[in-house]
Design goal:
297 residues; Jelly Rolls; seven-stranded antiparallel sheet; three-stranded antiparallel sheet; binds 2-oxoglutaric acid
Length: 297
């Protein structure tokens, strides 16, 4: 216990220096005080332009590759929770870190760690990563749920999703909807008959707001925030990528998905840049991976 606290203090004392000297410049958090206040009070906030056009193009290229290589699967069912739909599609890929060096590096990108640190505090780990793809016209939404119905962390504000709009996310193509303040309630969940594995709940939908974000923008919502996505009624595919981050206080082993064996610490004394978990230190590699993904696209 004492050893851990000492390590923590030492790490805190070097953190300021790291943030100043990382890649030779200071990293300014994209999360301002207003974002932070809204996250704490309402359970969510949105940041436009977290990633630039180059990154967006690289993420689009990776989504295309996942599809070309047949890695995505349709989780939408015919209403019985079992038989897969052939008319509508909610395509998913989980996890992503083992399929894309670009996405493996993304949680360590300076603007990501600067944002997540401000919202949930340090130290934290990457809990999950996944992609949701709604094909044009037949893309179907993900029903209302609270991530904490799966994970049950004691303080729902100690975990956050970062949902990145890979394409512009609009009401028409079924962007993310959230219910402000819903993290203060715990809704009962049951199996969603329209998905082969999800659970869903029935929160007060009239209080929902649709969060439209441009490609490269991100919505952060804590583990308690009830959220859903709608159908894609447009002529273009729409993808989102969700990364879930969990503060150390709530990162007990049994809260971590059993099928995910690598959960890198992104900040704190155990942050090895993924070296311990992936066998390679991916800090400072994100910009190179963006270039690489664009070259092979
Ligand atoms: O993009 C989607 O359809 C759903 C996203 C979601 O439910 C999540 O990230 O927890």
């Amino acid at each position: 216990m004492l050893g851990r606290s000492v390590a923590h203090i030492i790490w805190r004392s070097v953190l300021f220096h790291q943030q100043q000297s990382h890649l030779g410049r200071a990293v300014i958090s994209p999360i301002h005080e207003d974002h932070r206040r809204q996250f704490r009070q309402q359970g969510w906030c949105a940041v436009e332009g977290l990633f630039d056009e180059q990154v967006v193009a690289a993420l689009v290229a990776e989504v295309d590759r996942f599809q070309r290589q047949g890695l995505v699967r349709n989780v939408r069912t015919k209403g019985d929770g079992v038989r897969h739909s052939s008319q509508t599609a909610n395509l998913q890929l989980i996890p992503l870190f083992d399929k894309s060096p670009l996405i493996r590096a993304l949680p360590f990108a300076p603007q990501v760690s600067a944002a997540v640190s401000r919202l949930i505090g340090d130290p934290y780990l990457l809990h999950l990563d996944q992609m949701f793809l709604k094909p044009a016209r037949i893309g179907s939404g993900t029903s209302w749920h609270q991530d904490n119905a799966y994970f049950k962390i004691a303080d729902p504000l100690k975990g956050t999703a970062m949902w990145i709009a890979v394409h512009d996310a609009t009401v028409d193509n079924g962007t993310l909807r959230v219910i402000p303040g819903s993290h203060e309630h715990s809704y009962s969940h049951e199996r969603d008959p329209h998905s082969d594995h999800h659970i869903h709940c029935q929160p007060p939908e009239e209080q929902a707001i649709s969060v439209e974000v441009g490609a490269g923008g991100a919505v952060f919502f804590c583990y308690g925030t009830a959220h859903s996505t709608g159908d894609n009624d447009t002529d273009r595919d729409r993808a989102g990528m969700a990364f879930h981050f969990l503060h150390e206080d709530c990162a007990a082993d049994d809260l971590i998905a059993a099928d995910r064996d690598r959960r890198p610490w992104v900040t704190g004394p155990r942050n090895s840049g993924g070296l311990d978990e992936y066998g390679v230190d991916v800090r400072d590699t994100f910009a190179d991976e963006v270039e690489r993904a664009l070259k092979v696209a």
